[in-house]
Amino acid sequence: MDGCLFCKIINNEISAEKIYEDENVLAFLDINPINVGHTLVIPKNHSDSLLDTPIEDWLSVSEVAYRLAPKIKDAVDADGINIGMNIGAPAGQVIFHTHLHIMPRFSGDGYKLWKGTPYKDEQEIQTVADRIRSKI
């Protein structure tokens, strides 16, 4: 897709520190990492987000992430890993090409996870579950 930063990386128009590549997937180091080793895994076929990614592309991305995560953890001697994806600008997505983050974590690195807010009551949680089930 014209103008897509990640498509330009796939097409070697922009350089990136690639750590894995096959016919369907590319993985490279994030240039603004949470911690060292922070890696992005992307499908080579353009899609804006997971919501419009063909299932075959998503399966390829998730398999590569599954295989890379423990190797990245070991390579940078991390204590843990976060795997994440932002879908849409309100969720923090900046580059609109499907991508999954593998983020090494270290004890005391200072990064916090989001804080949850419990449902008001049993009726609210049941209503939300019913709404979701109705869409499946």
Series of secondary-structure elements, N-terminal to C-terminal:
HEEEHEEH
What's the architecture in CATH terms? Answer: 2-Layer Sandwich
Tally of individual helices: 3
Unreliable sequence segments: none
Q: Work out the oligomeric state of the chains in this entry.
A: single chain
Distance between the termini: 31 Å
Helix proportion of residues, in percent? 25-40%
Q: Give the averaged pLDDT, no decimals.
A: 96
The CATH top-level class label: Alpha Beta
Strand percentage: 15-25%
Keywords:
single chain, 136 residues, alpha+beta, HIT family, subunit A, five-stranded antiparallel sheet, 3 helices, 5 strands, 30% helix, 18% strand, globular
Notes on the protein architecture:
The chain is globular. The protein has three helices and five strands; from the N terminus they run H-E-E-E-H-E-E-H. The longest helix has 21 residues, at 55-75. The protein has 136 residues and is of the alpha+beta class. It has one domain: 2-Layer Sandwich (HIT family, subunit A), CATH 3.30.428.10. Strand 1 and strand 2 (25-29) form a beta hairpin. The chain starts with a helix and ends with a helix. Strands 1-2-3-5-4 form a five-stranded antiparallel β-sheet, covered by helices on one side.
